[in-house]
Write a structure and sequence with these properties.
By secondary structure, this protein is an alpha/beta fold. It is 41% helix and 11% strand. The protein has helices spanning 49-58, 75-78, 89-98, 113-121, 139-144, 152-163, 167-196, and strands at 35-39, 62-67, 81-83, 101-104, 125-127. It has a five-stranded parallel sheet with strand order 3-2-1-4-5, with helices on both faces. Strand 1, helix 1 and strand 2 (62-67) form a beta-alpha-beta unit. It is globular.
Length: 197
């Protein structure tokens, strides 16, 4: 809708693509007995770290929650939390490829980079409602999206639902959504360049 402010702005979203990396999952998500989740961001009000981390800590289906940011929780919730360092971009992608679920139910977002990075390696991402104009009816969006991002119980329940999807089926859903993002991005960039001429 930015074309309402300036006539040269595009009236459609031009989404980013998942980055090209040489790191892939060795197996489908959820290959272990319990999920390993990653909160791969920092702690601020829109990243919603505590709701994400508390939700995962409350889930009996989650064994470990990795966090880049320091987390202070009561002892009964902190047992699953492990602080990890970001290190390098390659190390970050390795962590994404080894975890089962990325926690990114943010307060507001367009298409967050951490989700695009997770898609690049084939890992699903728990998320809030995104400001996208495509894919809302895709199985990935229906399974990964929560409407109550401030409610750790709702987030926990969604994590549990995700964990019940067989690993191979979940991998197919993630791969198909990744294809949708790439195709949509390529089509919109082509349209953008055509419109610019």
């Amino acid at each position: 809708g930015m074309h309402g402010l300036h006539p040269k702005a595009t009236p459609y979203l031009v989404p980013n693509m998942p980055p090209m990396v040489n790191i892939r999952r060795l197996g489908p998500p959820r290959s272990g007995q319990k999920l390993t989740c990653l909160f791969g961001s920092w702690n601020n009000h829109w990243k919603n770290m505590y709701a994400n981390v508390v939700a995962a800590a409350l889930s009996e289906r989650v064994g470990k929650v990795l966090c880049y940011a320091p987390v202070e929780l009561p002892a009964h919730l902190s047992a699953k939390i492990e602080r990890v360092s970001y290190d390098t971009r390659e190390a970050h992608f390795r962590k994404l490829s080894l975890c089962d679920l990325v926690l990114n139910a943010t307060v507001v977002d367009c298409h967050p980079m951490v989700e695009l990075e997770a898609l690049a390696v084939g890992t699903p991402t728990l998320r809030g409602e995104l400001d996208l104009d495509f894919g809302h009816d895709h199985p990935f969006c229906r399974l990964m999206t929560v409407s109550s991002v401030h409610d750790p119980i709702a987030l926990r329940d969604q994590i549990d639902r995700i964990s019940m999807v067989p690993g191979g089926e979940l991998a197919d859903i993630v791969a198909d959504y990744r294809r949708l993002v790439v195709v949509t991005s390529l089509e919109r960039y082509a349209r953008l360049f055509e419109d610019a001429q």
